[in-house]
Amino acid sequence: MTEHTTPPTLLLVDDQQEYTRGLARLVEGEHPEYRCLRAANAAQALEALESETVSLMLTDLRMPGMDGLELLREALAVEPSLSVVVLTGFGSIETAVEALKAGAYDFLTKPVDKDVLLRTLDKALERSRLLEENFCLRSWVASRELDDELVGESVAMRRLKEQIRAVAQSDYTVLITGESGTGKERISRAIHKLSSRRDKPLLTVNCPAIPDQLLESELFGHEKGAFTGADRTRKGIFVEASGGTLLLDEIGDISMNIQTKLLRVLQEREVRPVGSSRSVPVDVRILASTNRDLQEKIREGTFREDLFYRLNVLTVQAPALARRCEDVPLLANYFLSESCREMGLPAKRMAPEVPGFLAARRWPGNVRELQNFMRRLCVFCHGEEVDMAQVYLALSAEGERCENGDTAESYKDAKAQVVEAFTRAYVTDLLQRTQGNVSEAARLSGLERVSLQKIIKRHEIDADRYR
Questions:
Q1: Is the pLDDT score of 96 beyond 80?
Q2: What letters, b where the CB count within 10 A reaches 16 and e where it falls short, cover 451-465?
Q3: What is the separation of C-alpha 251 from the centre of its chain, rounded to a whole number of angstroms?
Q4: Which label site among 100, 120, 373, 465 has the fewest CB atoms less than 10 Å from its CB?
Q5: Which DSSP symbol is given to 320?
Q6: Does residue 248 form part of some domain?
Q7: Considering the domain boundaries, does residue 75 fall inside one?
Q8: SS3 assignment, position 317
Q9: What pLDDT score was predicted for residue 276?
Q10: Which stretch of DSSP H or E encloses residue 349?
């Protein structure tokens, strides 16, 4: 007998209700912990699969209406990891073999031998258990990868990661918004990796980079001879991404003509290649990103309101770096290490005053600007430690000056900002390293425990969340 952390549920499907009643008595007699559901036809079986967590389905092949083979295909579309055993008479072995090719775990011939039935069900349930464990393990790994993909421990980043985990569980369209450089493409990769489509491709179309007359062909494909230069038939990225995920990057910049055709694809779940009279069904999850205010564009008449609501089923907003400045030291360290790897250099570290200085700066280009700056620091630093001299050198190399004619801050105010940012970054790092142990953090810092507690309170840092 296979052990299960949760007693398994079996779904028995046959139009002869007395037969499924007898199967249920047989199975529950041997395994009282098992739960058996019965369905008299395919429609009832699919309803049960939608509402219940089923470990194994045992179905007859010959039934009125939708037969067992068609039910098998529909059931695996609902739950790809479901183990299915089919029942067949001696005269339909070829159909049973077809069922195996379609994804059934095994088949049994009627009349069913009790011992053979129980052995087969045990093996099929063991397969279901292993698949469930594998799914949980892969989900855990993907969740760990999320922390690597999106660096940051601020409240804004924790909230973003929670949103990503939530939206990844569905197949609904997601609109990813945020300023340029906030990591919208990384967010899309994270959603895809945590989704059930992770084993299929994630393809990206940079909408503004493709001329309007070519974007339709890029998205939907074209027939040979559809336009000048179309010397062969092309599938289009919607079809190429079949079973996976498609990111429409900077969707706010597409023309009204493409918007209209895209709306039809989202409504009908099919594409019509340029020059073709037939439509092709597509199975793809849509993610769309933009740095534009689409509702403002709707008011201006440059973006379709109905398309906006088709895209905006679920929304994820990438926070600007100004909203999570406490993440800047973490990001800076991450990008410095990444830059060293890219250039094949030994690892470098930052002098103690550098993270605070970086956290106090404005980053209008967000994470991308910080990443580029750390690459420059890696180039200018020839030793093992990045100090303020190299920071100023990198700043002068990019010709930094006060933007828009703003008056420079006073020395006192600028210094206070740097000290404030450094203190927050330093204490946050200490608490991370000590897992929220304030006494140990005080010992490492050389501060009295009371003094450190006052700093933590003054900067409104929650030590408990690091435990």
A1: no
A2: ebbebbeeeebebee
A3: 19
A4: 465
A5: P
A6: yes
A7: yes
A8: strand
A9: 82
A10: strand 349-350
Considering Cα of 22, then 24, then 27, then 29, what sign does the dihedral take?
negative
User: Which CATH number goes with the domain that contains 291?
Assistant: 3.40.50.300
Distance CA 377, CA 386 (A): 7
Q: Tell me how far apart the alpha carbons of residues 135 and 304 are, in angstroms, rounded to a whole number.
A: 39
Are residues 240 and 294 located together in one domain of the fold? yes
Q: Kindly state whether residues 50 and 174 are assigned to the same domain.
A: no
User: Confidence band (pLDDT; 50, 70, 90) for 111?
Assistant: confident
Distance CA 223, CA 219 (A): 13
Is the residue at 144 inside a domain? no
For 349-406, the pLDDT digits (tens) are: 998 888 888 988 889 999 999 999 999 998 888 888 898 888 888 887 665 543 433 4
Is residue 105 exposed (0-12), middle (13-18) or buried (19+ Cβ within 10 Å)?
buried
Measured distance CA(34)–CA(36) in Å, rounded: 6
Q: Are 45 and 13 in contact (CB under 8 A)?
A: yes
Look at residue 141 and tell me if it is in a domain. Answer: no
Q: What is the CA radius of gyration of the chain?
A: 29
User: What's the total number of domains in the chain?
Assistant: 3
Residue with tokens 């379609």: 102
The DSSP output letter for 407 is: P
Same domain for 298 and 368?
no
Q: How is residue 420 written in tokens?
A: 């404030």
Same domain, residue pair 161 and 28: no
- Helix or strand or coil: residue 295? helix
Cβ contact 463:431 at 8 Å: yes
Q: What is the CATH number of the domain that holds 346?
A: 1.10.8.60
**Which residues form the domain of 425?**
322-466
pTM of whole model > 0.85? Answer: no
Distance (Å, whole) CA 373 – CA 392? 11
Task: Count CA atoms closer than 13 A to 452's CA, side-chain side.
Answer: 21
Shared domain for 117 and 233, answered yes or no, is: no
pLDDT in tens, 61-93: 888 888 888 898 888 877 877 899 988 876 567
Which of 187, 399, 325, 14 lies closest to 23, judged by CA? 14
For residue 63, what are the CA distances in angstroms to 16, 23, 38, 94, 316? 9, 17, 14, 17, 45
